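The material for today's practical consists of a large collection of protein records. There is nothing in a record beyond a sequence line and a structure line. As an example, a complete record with its sequence and its structure tokens follows:
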Amino acid sequence: MPQDPTRDTPRPAFRDPFAWIDAHHERRLAAGLVRTLRPRPADSPLTDLAGNDYLGLTRHPEVTEAAAAAARRWGAGATGSRLVTGSTALHARLEEELAAFCGFESALVFSSGYAANLAAVTALAGPGGGAEGAALLVSDEGNHASLIDGCRLARAEKAVVPHADPDAVRKALAAHGGRALAVTDSVFSVDGDAAPLPALAGACREHGAALLVDDAHGLGVLGEGGRGAVHAAGLAGAPDVVATVTLSKALGSQGGAVLGPERVIRHLVSNARTFIFDTGLAPAAAGAALAALTVLRREPQRAQRVREIAAELHRRVVAAGFAAVRPDAAVVSVRAPSPEAAVRWAADCREAGIAVGCFRPPSVPDGVSRLRLTARADLSDRQVTAAADAIVRTAPAA
């Protein structure tokens, strides 16, 4: 009978392939950078200055009822990708309404703002090579992670330029001399400062480059009636400008969209992988976003109100002696002495009844930890005053 050659072969000692995770965790723990999930209750007693519900619409009765009605009619999910069964009449109507409201020729809805940014950057970078040569992506160093990841995934040359610096963009484009796309947030999510969009568009036009603007923090807050930063800059509908938006902030729903010339949207339908291979946005989210747009059209003062609250929060924390970036939209960034101090400050704010954001490395590229306060249009003056007082009262020593 033949012998089994492996019978007497000693088995190798087990080597834990994930042992490195424990060491990584210990290093993060020592640096005060461990992140944890904290499920919130449906009816939180905290005043929310941490979420991105800028216009206070996520619980608006018209918005929630529209979400429920869409789920009852169309089902809980989209059932497939947009090119198979995931497109409904709701998706088409939402795209028409978004494009019309923001001033663009066409729109395409995605399952998230992150997916929309990945799609726009990778698809508009185009194929590498060809008669035009390789494309260049010029990215602001303060851009959101979704834009950064899009640039990493794109088969294109890349140039990361100093924050909000049109001259740096101009120099990068001049050095390349070929097909190019400049990529920027309209309002940067960490500090809440706005990009110089007219100057950036001018730099791009000098060199025949396109401009892609992530208007996630501008839609619903800036521009006429909340039409966004791109609209406010006079660039909406321009043939060389594309914008992305999220439905999960000012519109209180979920999902994202790309807005631009019709030929750009047509190109994305056939070439954007996060559109082709991802399940479509749930009908409930599409219905909610449509209802939120209706409320915003009827109540455009919400956009002005959220800006006023952000300015008041900034005024109060600066008057108390803290370093804070002047808000260009709804985000107020307040510097903390260290990552550990930021975590403790945020926890003390929660104990005082205020939920605030806490940004630490590596989420902040400059390594400076912050409390991130987000204004909401539905807050009363009394709530704003109480929140600012609690933030000041719980501040750690420098």
Remarks:
- The first strand starts at residue 47 and ends at 49.
